[in-house]
Amino acid sequence: MITGYNTDVEHNGVVYHVQTEDKGLQTPLILSLVYTGGAILASKRSPYDDLIASGFDQNVLAERLQRQHKLICAAVHAGRIEELKRMGERAPSSEEPAAAVPSPPAVDEAAALNSVPANPPSEPFAAEASDRFSISEEIEEALTVSLLDEKHLHPGESVTFRIEVTKQTDSGRAPAPKANITVKVLGSSFQPSSTYSTTDSVGRSSISVTLPSFTTGRAAILIRAEADGEVAELRRIIQPA
Questions:
Q1: What is the CA 187 to chain-centroid distance, rounded?
Q2: What residue ranges do the domains of the chain occupy?
Q3: Using CA atoms, how far apart are residues 170 and 17, in angstroms rounded to an integer?
Q4: Measured between alpha carbons, how far is 212 from 31 in angstroms, rounded to an integer?
């Protein structure tokens, strides 16, 4: 089971809590709940039986989970509250007890390692007929960060990350110059380290790091971009030796 996400999103003075989690291989489902005032406002369920049938890949599941959570948060942030309410009128199922909003887990580096989510794929998520509400690709993420060349990461090697940051504009996506970039190396068996940079005029940056050597535990690279008050992240697993 992949660790999920808990995010508070404010719109017009109201704080909405968005929770997305993997229900596990016994119930292959990504479940997102939107809470307000301690009650469930809406939900979205995305089965992933196709992943199991084609050979389970945790990285692909992590990508789907992160994308679904980000799209729902974006819908709330964009003010699609009434749409969520109308489409969430059906009573919660047994999977969604109408209880108080659970306290979000503390966000720490160890928890980040458990999910190791990747940057969301560009293709839209198809909405199932049973969804309480649909999240379409009309909502664009304000800021995105991506790697120009994907590679397998291994302990002890030196690697250069070629990073691209883009932002949403009225005319479409455009490079994000002068975005602050942080590349953090996280691990359960070593101390974290960070390297910083800034994107150039075309929204790109190159950062070289030496990955720590380790043989046990989890490790990952976290790449974080910040520009104009917006934040985007992606993570990649460091394969143990």
A1: 19
A2: 5-115, 143-237
A3: 28
A4: 35
Q: Is 148 strand, coil or helix? A: coil
d(CA 90, CA 88): 6
The contacts of residue 31 (CB under 8 Å, 6+ apart) are 20, 21, 23, 43, 44, 45, 95, 96
For the domain covering 143-237, report its CATH number.
Answer: 2.60.40.10
Tally Cβ neighbours within 10 Å of residue 57.
11
Nearest-angstrom CA–CA distance, 156 and 137: 39
Report the run of H or E that residue 53 belongs to, with start and end: helix 49-54
Nearest CA-CA partner of 79 in 12, 25, 130, 158: 12
Instruction: Enter the pTM of the model.
Output: 0.49
Can you tell me the distance from the alpha carbon of 30 to that of 108, in angstroms, rounded to the nearest whole number? Answer: 22
Across-strand partners of 236? 221
How far apart are the C-alpha atoms of 110 and 169, rounded to whole Å? 35
Per-residue model confidence as pLDDT tens digits over 95-109: 444 333 343 333 344
Query: In residues, how long is the chain?
Result: 241
